[in-house]
Structure formats: structure tokens, C-alpha cells
Amino acid sequence: MCLFITAVVPHTALTDDFLALCERRRVGATIVDNASITPQLSKDERYLWVTRGQCDCGSRLFAQSAHRSARQRERQIAKHRKHGWSEAKIDKWVASTRAGGGAASAAASGVHSLEEWANFLHEALALKSTKYVALVGHWYSGGVPDESIHLLGRERHDVSELRSPDFEPLSHDVVHEYRAATP
């Protein structure tokens, strides 16, 4: 299993400025048509795959609540080997999924820090076309386009929460919505 972070945005957000920001901030913006997610969104929302590295396992944004057992880890390593992963790639995955993730392993795998997420969200919400950006974290056993996911609800957040020393990781399978501050 690997953690992937996806996003939900209004279709109006997908402008050249938004896509350029995603590119500059190393955030993916690939539209995903997931048959289980799409019906759970409003018709004017788009589901995006924002992961740019191999996965987001080292992210503090959606930290794993319970540590993997050694047996679970070994089963997953065997699965990765079966799918042709090299030992170097497996070692990188193991390092990124260890308890706490570690900033070095997260950075090496392309995972964004909380500050990088805060900066991206702040800039995205400053665009007139972007009313909100919602983030979803899910531990996938299959592919992002194919996995069946039941979203557990929506929660609103302020970008400043990501900069707090008391930040608590976001819940998995919840749409965590960040909106522009209203004047």
C-alpha cells in the first residue's frame, strides 16, 4: 500500500495560471476519472492526482495513524518485488514509510513539506478562478484511477493550520477543503 494525495477543485480553477502554479510548485494536476470518486463530487468539481514522485508515503500531511507491522511491510515488499521494483526502489519505499517518514526521505521522494503545501495553497487561493482546493489522502492498494474509495465527508481548514507547530495530520478519505479568506 502507498499513500497518494489527490485534490478536488472546481472546474473553473483549471486555468493556465493554476496549471503554471502547479508546475512551479511541483504539484501534479492530472485529471483522474475514478468511477467511485466522481459520483461523490459535485458535477462542477474535478478530481486531480497531485503526486509528482513515486508516492506520498513520507508526507506529514496525512501521516499514517498506526505503524505498519513488520509482517505487513514484508508482504508489501514481496508485492513490490513481484511487480518488478528494484532493490533500490524498495529501499527508498521502506525509508519513506518508516514511522514518522523523516524529512530527508520525504524530500528525496518528492513529497512536499507542510510549508510547501501551505505556500501552494496560499498562492492557488489567491487566483480569482480558484475558490477552494481540497486535499484527499488515501492508502492505495490499487491504482489511483481504479481504486474504490468511499469518502467519509468534508472538513474546512485554514491554510495557517499547516504552519502551526501543533499541526495534527489530516484524516484519510476525507475531503479537506481550503478556501480563500473572505474580506
**Span between termini:** 42 Å
Instruction: Summarize the biggest pleated sheet.
Output: 6 strands, mixed
Number of strands: 6
Poorly predicted ranges (pLDDT <50, ≥5 residues)?
A: 65-69, 99-109
Report the sheet-strand fraction.
15-25%
- By helix and strand content, what is the structural category? alpha+beta
- What percent of residues adopt helix (DSSP H or I)? 25-40%
Kindly give the count of domains. 1
Number of helices: 5
Rg of Cα set: 16 Å
| Major beta sheet, strand line-up | 2-3-1-4-6-5
Reading the helices and strands in chain order gives EHEEHHHHEEE
Q: Roughly what is the average pLDDT, rounded to an integer?
A: 84
Broad shape: globular
What do these coordinates show?
The chain is α+β, with helices and mostly antiparallel strands and 183 residues long. The chain has one domain. 28% of the residues lie in helices and 19% in strands. The chain contains 5 helices and 6 strands; from the N terminus they run E-H-E-E-H-H-H-H-E-E-E. It has helices at residues 16-24, 70-82, 87-97, 103-108, 114-126; strands spanning 2-10, 30-31, 45-49, 132-140, 154-157, 175-179. The chain has a 6-stranded mixed β-sheet with strand order 2-3-1-4-6-5, with helices on one face. The N and C termini lie far apart (42 Å).
Can you lay out the helices and strands and say which pair or pack?
Layout: E1 2-10, H1 16-24, E2 30-31, E3 45-49, H2 70-82, H3 87-97, H4 103-108, H5 114-126, E4 132-140, E5 154-157, E6 175-179
Parallel strand pairs: 5-6
Antiparallel strand pairs: 1-3, 1-4, 2-3, 4-6
